[in-house]
Amino acid sequence: MSQSQPPSSTPTRRRFFTQAGAGVALLALAPGVRLAELAVAASDDEPVTDAHRWGLWVDTSRCASGCDACVSACNDEHGLTGMGRPETDAQWIRKVDLKDETTGREVSLPLMCQHCEEPPCVDVCPTGASFRREDGIVLVDKHICIGCRYCMMACPFHARSFIHEDLSGQKTHSPRGKGTVESCTLCVHRVDENRAPACVEACADAGHHALVFGDLNDAQGPLASALAREETDELRSDLRLNTAVRYSGV
User: Fold this and answer.
1) Per residue in 240-249, pLDDT tens?
2) For 159-169, how does the pLDDT look when each residue is reduced to its tens digit (9 = 90+)?
3) At residue 23, does pLDDT exceed 50?
4) How many structural domains compose the chain?
5) Closest CA relative to residue 76, chosen from 92, 87, 63, 88
6) Residue 107, beta-bridge partner list
7) 161 vs 87, 88, 124, 126, 224, CA distance in Å?
């Protein structure tokens, strides 16, 4: 995959589509939601900068097959209730079971947005709705998403969902809207409050401790320290996306 920026994402054309998209997307977001603020401030006193790069380590040796604590926690945290149509239900994180046909070895792992340093979803978005914060978290601005789903086609991890149904009971910290695309946000609202994502806490509560969250830029922090001592891999490393989610044992 070429890492050059496609014509549709040049600054001039992106500005045009951003302005146009703002008038096209008519959404019913949760009351009080102003998603754009998530892009500029982690808190009132600490703006988002590239001093941090948030990421996740998945230790598949600790990830139990059949356990869906991380999935359930994500659904609860973001109000991802099922609509009775599994083929269209939102899925920000999903469990995947893999088997090596040669050795018979099996592993189970969670799969979600990989929060790439070079995100293909951002490259192909015509309105700028898909964007990457300075601290590496990839988000979707529902106010200007026009539901074209180019990002879904570009994502090599199939990590994005399209909202087909009318929504109710939304969470103010997790804006959603019919006709827009969404994916894992690394629980950005929690990160901005110095808390771990819901999936990480749930995995620890279940006694597995398969997920470690932290700052990739902090050499002394729990994540960077774990990655320094463990052998880890990026999914689809051939694409050179420099993902913020790393796996061991795959």
Assistant:
1) 999 999 999 9
2) 999 999 888 88
3) no
4) 1
5) 92
6) 98
7) 10, 8, 16, 18, 30
CA distance 171 to 35: 12
Q: 233: which residues sit within 8 A by CB, 6+ positions away? A: 246, 247, 248, 250
- Cα–Cα distance for residue pair 189/121, rounded to 1 Å: 21
205 in any annotated domain? yes
Inside any domain, residue 2: no
Distances (CA, A) of 235 to 67, 121, 215: 21, 16, 19
Could you tell me the two tokens for 91?
């899925």
CB atoms near residue 10 (< 10 Å): 11
Q: How far out from the chain centre does Cα 139 lie?
A: 7
Integer-rounded Cα Rg, in Å, for the chain is 18
CATH number at residue 203: 3.30.70.20
Phi-psi region of 17 (alpha: psi -120 to 50; beta: other; left: phi over 0): alpha
Residues 78, 90: Cα–Cα separation, whole Å: 10
Tokens of 170: 């939304």
Both structure tokens of 112: 């979600």
Domain containing residue 135: 7-248
9 phi, psi to nearest 5 deg: -110, 15
Asked, for residue 39, whether it belongs to a domain, the answer is yes
What is the phi/psi pair of residue 153, to 5°? -70, -30
